[in-house]
Design brief:
Layout: H1 9-16, H2 22-30, H3 41-48, H4 53-66, H5 69-82, H6 84-96, H7 98-106, H8 119-122, H9 126-133, H10 139-159, H11 164-189, H12 191-196, E1 197-203, H13 205-208, E2 218-226, H14 232-251, E3 262-263, E4 276-277, H15 279-288, H16 292-298, E5 302-306, H17 308-322, H18 331-344, H19 362-376, H20 388-397, H21 403-427, H22 438-447, H23 454-485, H24 497-506, H25 512-523, H26 528-545, H27 550-564, H28 570-576, H29 578-589, H30 593-600, H31 621-634, H32 638-665, H33 676-707, E6 713-719, H34 721-724, E7 734-742, H35 748-766, E8 777-778, E9 791-793, H36 794-803, H37 807-812, E10 817-821, H38 823-837, H39 845-861, H40 880-894, H41 906-915, H42 921-945, H43 956-965, H44 973-994
Parallel strand pairs: 2-3, 2-4, 7-8, 7-9
Antiparallel strand pairs: 1-2, 1-5, 6-7, 6-10
Helix pairs in contact: 1-2, 2-4, 4-6, 4-7, 5-6, 6-10, 9-11, 10-11, 11-14, 15-17, 18-19, 19-20, 19-23, 20-21, 21-23, 22-23, 23-24, 23-26, 24-25, 25-27, 26-27, 26-29, 27-29, 28-29, 29-32, 30-32, 31-32, 31-33, 32-33, 33-35, 33-42, 36-38, 40-41, 41-42, 42-43, 42-44
Length: about 1000
């Protein structure tokens, strides 16, 4: 008897052998069931070698208890001690699977299935499993036989007799045998249906790929035909009844549980399509309607049950279509979009524990391998394997994947799949979530051979492999392109030129030969620069491929790299600052404007980083004016001063464009900005502030050059139109008025000459040919339009507006805001025009009719000939003009009494009108949505084409780039145009009611 307070030697030995509850284990060992063997050291050693010794011991005691009488118990225990293969197998299973322990307790003689150790027992195939299921005559006996077969698979697995690939193949073979047995049972129940049709069962997914899990849906597709002379419709109906019954036999829960769900949702039209189709019906669907992911799924199609001749014919018929899938438009984008959608659908609470679907999980490896198979499998039949690891090996052998990358991915995939198997094996439940309970983690870790600190080692290894997959899975697609052109030592097989071309075409490159030349120029050689480029380019190529114009992205990257390649900071910036490389890739492939601005001064790429010199947040007017005025002070002469100001403008235009592009596309870390109105306000405000600061600097330079510190007349620049409304786009002119007031003692004529000279010189300097974009000043909104003087004195404006002002001028003055020059003079000008733009008591009926006449005439006369009025952003139906004139009419009528309407900004005025109940919230939202969308389209056109435009581009690639900027996935430009028409049509209905009174 053990003394109180002291532990027995058995307790200590149990702890040493890995038991976590030695007290309970000691009681089980002392029980009558194990009396004949409890003192045998072989038993304790064998239990200690299992994944969970406590679980194994409990399962063994239950199994002994379940034997029929003492002789059967003695036979089991004697065999257990005498036969090491049985001991390792049986205890290994009991220590890894509570579910199989339950099965053995219910069917106590099934342990004998683990005794045999023949050659065919080591690696059984479909025939061996069919023999194991041969006695099953109904769903219940089929389940018992299935579990008995699984028992032997699990035993070989946990003992290490089979590796991951062999285990997964055996599980797939067992599934094949089970489907055949289930179909035989269904046919026996309905012999008339069986006689009427030919039914083939095509395995898909992991079963089709010969790489099944312990517990997984078995994906299938059914093909049915009538026997000779049978009516096709009746034959398909009979085949459907057989297929449905076969699915129920496998899926339904009985007293012995279920086997696994049979899932036929990969069939044409999914769950909405017929369960069984004829071969010709399948072919017609895949030729006309199938999506890219459906061809990807067919990679794993394999006939497994029923009429195998029909099944082989199905695979042979559809196989050519599978290998043409990579030629489909947006092929790579479609596959990657499907992968992103899978990740997005993972519940946030589970993503950290998701072994299969999360980034760095099993699906990343499978998607990457399948993508490469589809691209290169048409020309290279050695790649046409449905098994992930076999396909990965073939890809490495052919040079389509780097050998080192393939080895790392193979290791990671095997580890993650084995981990998945151990998780499922415990309860035989379908799950891909890593458990949180420490006891579960300990059992899984020990089952993988991690014995020192199982939980800590398991988490470390899991995270290491997941991180490696996350790093490699996209690189896998792009790295061999560089190896093919880098001309380094020939250490392994490389992509052939033809294979590289295939891959680039699949990525969306229109000119793969040019792309390969760029890659060769960037990545060849043994210099440090080339080495860094080889590190960067695999990732950059993926980001370029995510744009509408990968060719332009790669070409522009080469240009920037050529210009900055010798600077020490450029490649370091891209390599070390996480955001910089992705931001650059987005900017270079989104259109012409931003790359053009960058090429004129490539050092602006530093703005894309997240270091001290970086930052994409546009700067405010005060900061810009301070910088530009300081540059003007340092300059030698007016031309040099304005050149400096225009240089700042170019850099800040690039910053704004880059901000807009990155926010519109989103990055891997940050999703695209959802609030389109916020982006419109950001661009409009930034470009307007920049234009005002540039005018202020130009004015200072001109005055200093011609008159020193003081001009003979006070001078102010008044912003009008979109400029005054803080709504300038990338390609907008600056609408302005110029006002002056002679200084005391200065003649009116002299002051006028000085003011006109200032305006002329400002316009000249801002349009001088240079590498910087010109800033065009438009003063056509002045009194008398183009016929009137460019500059007027404040008194002249007062006299004109008092005597001659027309209603359209009052409307134009709604946008008037001081932007540069003498602030006091500017504010007095605003005081002068306020009564005109916010007339007391509002507009009279005649004035309202005049505005409506002007608008109607503009619609008929100014819309370009041949333009589609439903797609013209400025003058088209529900476009900018419609919304702005409606808002401005409300301002003219009610601005005198509603202070909120006294703003130059369209969206602000619209919100104020809604707050004042001058239009409904619904109408305000409709007008705002249309105005924001039309403005975004104009900005997109300028970014994409590098020149301003009011209509969608006609070129397909440019139209796709506009769609990407607006948030549409590749291949959805039709949806973009439909959405634009729908949005503006609703807006026009509101305009007709509010503006025209219709």
């Amino acid at each position: 008897m053990t003394a109180p307070g002291r532990r027995s030697s058995t307790f200590t030995r149990l702890l040493r052998h890995g038991f976590t509850d030695p007290s309970a284990a000691e009681r089980l060992l002392e029980g009558p069931e194990l009396a004949p063997v409890r003192s045998d050291p072989v038993l304790l050693d064998a239990l200690g070698a299992t994944a969970d010794p406590d679980l194994a011991l409990l399962g063994l005691v239950r199994l002994v208890e379940a034997q029929d009488g003492h002789p059967a118990q003695r036979e089991l225990l004697d065999t257990l001690i005498a036969a090491k293969p049985l001991r390792d197998r049986l205890l290994g299973v009991l220590g890894a699977s509570a579910a199989l322990a339950d099965h053995l307790a219910r069917h106590p003689h099934d342990w004998q299935a683990l005794v045999t150790y023949e050659a065919q027992d080591l690696h059984p195939g479909v025939q061996e499993f069919e023999r194991g299921l041969a006695d099953a005559t109904d769903p219940v006996t089929l389940r018992v036989a299935y579990r008995r077969c699984m028992l032997s698979i699990a035993a070989r697995d946990v003992c290490g007799t089979t590796d991951l690939a062999q285990t997964a193949a055996e599980l797939a073979d067992l599934a094949t045998a089970t489907l055949r047995a289930a179909l035989a049972i269904a046919k026996a129940v309905a012999p008339d249906d069986a006689a009427l049709c030919r039914l083939a069962v095509i395995a898909m997914g992991k079963c089709g790929g010969h790489e099944l899990n312990y517990v997984s849906d078995v994906d299938v597709i059914f093909v049915g035909e009538g026997v000779e002379g049978a009516d096709e419709q009746k034959a398909v109906q009979a085949a459907t009844r057989l297929a449905s019954h076969m699915m129920r036999i496998c899926s339904e829960t009985t007293v012995e549980g279920s086997i696994w769900p049979v899932d036929a949702n990969l069939r044409p039209e999914g769950r909405n399509g017929p369960l069984v189709r004829t071969l010709s019906s399948h072919l017609a669907y895949y030729q006309r309607w199938a999506k890219t992911w459906e061809f990807q799924a067919l990679l794993k199609a394999r006939p497994v049950a029923g009429d195998l001749e029909l099944g082989e014919k199905y695979v042979a018929t559809l196989s050519p279509l599978v290998w043409q899938a990579a030629e489909r438009e947006n092929f790579v984008a479609d596959v990657q979009k499907m992968r992103r959608r899978v990740v997005e659908n993972i519940p946030a609470a589970e993503i950290e524990r998701e072994l299969k679907l999360a980034p760095g999980g099993l699906r990343d490896v499978e998607f990457a391998v399948q993508l490469l198979q589809l691209v290169h499998g048409r020309a290279d039949t050695s790649l046409r394997s449905g098994t992930t690891l076999d396909a990965l090996e073939a890809l490495a052998a052919g040079g389509y994947v780097g050998r080192a990358d393939a080895v790392q991915l193979d290791d990671a995939y095997r580890f993650l799949r084995t981990m998945e198997h151990r998780i499922q094996l415990f309860r035989l439940r379908r799950t891909h979530l890593v458990p949180e309970d420490e006891a579960d983690l300990r059992r899984i870790g020990r089952s993988l051979g991690l014995r020192a600190d199982p939980v800590k080692e398991l988490n470390r290894e899991w995270k290491r492999h997941a991180a490696m997959v996350r790093r490699l899975h996209e690189k896998l697609f792009y790295r061999p392109l560089l190896d093919a052109v880098a001309q380094l030592a020939p250490v392994e097989a490389r992509l052939s030129p033809g294979a590289a071309r295939e891959r680039l075409i699949a990525l969306g490159y229109a000119d793969p030969a040019a792309a390969l030349r760029h890659l060769e120029a960037l990545a060849s050689g043994v210099s440090r620069k080339a080495a860094i480029q080889r590190t960067l380019l695999p990732v950059l190529l993926g980001w370029f491929a995510d744009s509408a114009d990968p060719d332009a992205g790669l070409l522009n990257f080469r240009k920037v790299s050529d210009a900055l390649g010798k600077t020490p900071w450029y490649l370091r910036l891209l390599r070390d600052e996480g955001a910089a490389a992705e931001n650059l890739a987005r900017v270079l492939s989104a259109g012409r404007l931003a790359p053009d601005l960058l090429m004129r001064a490539p050092e602006a790429v530093a703005l894309l980083g997240d270091g001290e010199s970086g930052g994409l947040e546009p700067r405010g007017r005060a900061h810009l004016e301070q910088e530009i005025l300081a540059a003007v002070r340092r300059a030698d002469g007016g031309e040099q001063a304005v050149t400096a100001a225009r240089g700042v403008r170019r850099r800040e235009l690039f910053r704004t464009a880059a901000t807009d592009i990155v926010a519109s596309y989103g990055t891997e870390e940050t999703p695209a900005v959802a609030d389109q109105g916020a982006l419109v306000d950001l661009v409009g405000g930034a470009v307007s502030d920049l234009t005002a600061a540039t005018l202020a600097g130009t004015l200072r330079a001109v005055v200093r050059d011609g008159w020193g510190d003081t001009l003979p007349t006070r001078f102010a620049v008044i912003g009008m139109g979109r400029f005054g409304g803080h709504e300038l786009g990338y390609g907008s002119d600056a609408d302005v008025l110029f006002v002056h007031e002679p200084r005391e003692g200065v003649e009116e004529q002299e002051a006028s000459r000085a003011a006109n000279a200032v305006v002329s010189e400002m316009r000249r300097l801002l349009q001088l040919p240079s590498a910087d974009p010109p800033l065009l000043i438009d003063a056509d909104l002045r009194p008398e339009g183009k016929s009137g003087p460019l500059v007027r004195s404040l008194n002249s404006y007062e006299a004109y507006y008092r005597r001659w002002s027309l209603v359209w001028e009052s409307q134009a003055l709604l946008r008037a805001e001081v932007v540069a020059g003498d602030a006091d003079l500017g504010s007095r000008f605003i005081e002068l025009v306020d009564p005109l733009r916010y007339p007391a008591e509002g507009l009279g009926e005649e004035a309202v009719r005049e505005i409506r006449r002007l608008k109607a005439r503009m619609e008929t006369e100014r819309l370009p000939r041949g333009a589609d009025p439903t797609l013209h952003t400025k003058l088209g139906r529900g476009g900018l003009s419609d919304v702005e004139w409606t808002v401005q009419l409300i301002q003219l009528q009610h601005g005198w009494v509603e202070p909120g309407l006294r703003t130059t900004r369209t969206r602000e005025a619209l919100a104020a009108a809604c707050a004042a109940d001058l239009l409904s919230t619904e109408y305000a939202a409709t007008l705002d949505e249309a105005w924001v969308l039309a403005t975004r389209v104009r900005n997109a056109v300028m970014l994409v084409r590098g020149r301003a435009g009011d209509t969608f581009p006609s070129d397909g690639r440019e139209l796709a780039a506009v769609g990407r900027y607006l948030g549409y996935d590749p291949g959805h430009v039709g949806d973009m145009l439909d959405d634009y028409r729908r949005t503006t049509r609703r807006a026009r209905a509101v305009v007709d009611e509010l503006f025209y009174g219709a």
